Amino acid sequence: MEMPVVQIEGLTFHYPDSEPVLRDINLEIKRGEFIGITGPSGAGKTTLCMCLKGLIPHVIGGTMRGRVIVQGKNTRKTEPSILAEAVAMVFQDPEAQIVGLTVEEDLAFGPENLMRPPDLIRAAIPRVLQTVGLSGYERRETYRLSGGQKQRIAIASALMMEPQVLILDEPTSELDPQGKDEVFEVVRTLREEHDVTIIMVEHEVEQLADVADRIIALDHGSIVADAPPREFFRNAELFHRTEGERLPQVAALLLALEAEQLVKLTDFTPYEEEAIARLNQLLQEARLMQ
Amino acid sequence: MTKAEIVINVDDVSFAYAPGMPPALDHVSLQIHKGDFLALLGQNGAGKTTLAKTFNGLLQPERGSVLVGGLDTRHANVARLASLVGYCYQNPDHQIFNRTVALEAAYGPRNLGLPPDEVTRRVNHALQLVGLADKKDAAPLLLGKGERQKLAVASVLAMGSPILVVDEPTTGLDFRGIRNIMNLLRQWNQEEGRTIVIITHDLHIVAEYVPRAVVMAQGKVLIDGPTRAVLSNSAVLSLAGLKPPQITRVAQRLSHHGIPPDVMTVDEMLTHLRSALCGVKAVQEGAADASRL
């Protein structure tokens, strides 16, 4: 069997003088999987991302116990510069991560710092721009781009590193609806056409349900749920307890109908199209019976 | 019923940030009544924040006029406008600068020249309302994002202005944080009768909390009306690059079964489906009883 791309065993972390932010996290992620991470503020989502990237324990102060193995490398024993090639990260604020004045300068920045040959960098730029739907944007000035475009450039810059793992930490929360759609479109393309493993921290549950293979909920530093969307969103009790996330509306509706025994548990789905098809059928049957 | 008095009257306003730039506001007219709770919707660049900044004179219209409480913003005194319209910025860190939570909330009312007792009373009240009463001495920048957002709201509340403009109050907050802020605004609107304008991208919260919605695109108002009518108007929303909430989209796809196309919340949808599906349940139960006999 192929080795998981991410293996986390007994990971506990606390910042200096604070309660643990992560408590005994155990997690395996397979190559090419799309993992969604949700949870209320302060649940430890970003801290977990920083552990995967090796920023913890190398750059950020605090105490870490347990093991994080990415691409076969133990993050504790691996320099962040080496992990930088395996794990790329896109942050929440598109303004905070673009360094180049033009799109191509920005895309070249990462690989240039790794001393990659200029020819290869030049050849990669149009390829990643196509992936993010911004072909021909090489000479554009980054500061003139919209929020959604900036965030897509941030993803393109991450892809320039040819990472095995791409982490997106709330990449849509500062964007308008159009920008959010653009980012989800890119993420869907990556999922279908590339074998990069994607970990996405996200509050837009309806869109996340559509792209994720598995969704993990963090609460107070612990994993409280880890399941494919179909099972994950059925766990209504979880959402009432943490209140950190809302359910996709179709999931909330079907659970309520199920509670009143108007639909069966097997009718449950977190997906919009499936829910419409199912409700259509049920309403049809109801009509025939009347 | 007589309409409440108009507290903000935007009349045919146009504005561009620089000569030759496309107008950020293009012949906008909008009337806001006392006690209104309305949402400005649209993509970034649609003109929402620009419009809101004309309400307190931060921006002056190039043509047309903005009257606030009957005062023309071009001639009104800035301090006077500030006491009428409280403006809460999108990013709380753009407005927070004091050493403690209490000092931050006191800054506005103090600058209105209020006596110290009154300042303290207002600060306590505002911090109480947002749930920061026990953090008076905390350093604002060490608070979480949700708490900084609440502090920004409290600072504006402490001004006591009858009109509050809140620019994207929920960005970056989790579900609980969003509910807290929205409940607070609703309470402020319903119990104190204040006028509230929020700028947001989150149509779910608009559906749940805000009775009136205004959609903007390219500097123009595309539609202005009761939230239910606006959020179910897929055609106009799509002109602004917006979609109705998921539950409304589902209702519209089930309209041939008699589900109204303007359902806005899961609870409403539940009511409609309950009456449509209950018949089946009764029949099935009847059949099950019959088979047991």
CA radius of gyration of chain B is: 22 Å
How much β-strand is present in the residues of chain A? Answer: 15-25%
Helix/strand order of chain A, N-terminal first: EEEHHEEHEHHHEHEHEEHHHH
Using the coordinates above, name the CATH class of the largest domain in chain A. Answer: Alpha Beta
Give a count of the beta strands of chain B, DSSP E runs of length 2 or more.
10
What fraction of residues of chain B sit in β-strands? 15-25%
Estimated helix fraction of chain B: 40-55%
State the order of secondary-structure elements of chain B, H for helix, E for strand. EEEHEEHEHHHEHEHEEHHHH
Task: Give the end-to-end Cα distance of chain A, rounded to a whole number of Å.
Answer: 55 Å
The chain-level mean pLDDT of chain B equals 89
State the shape of chain B: globular
Query: What is the CATH architecture descriptor of the largest domain in chain B?
Result: 3-Layer(aba) Sandwich
The CATH architecture of the largest domain in chain A: 3-Layer(aba) Sandwich
- The structural class of chain A is alpha/beta
Largest sheet of chain B: 6 strands, mixed
- Biggest sheet descriptor of chain A: 6 strands, mixed
Which blocks of ≥5 consecutive residues of chain B have pLDDT under 50?
none
Number of domains of chain B: 2
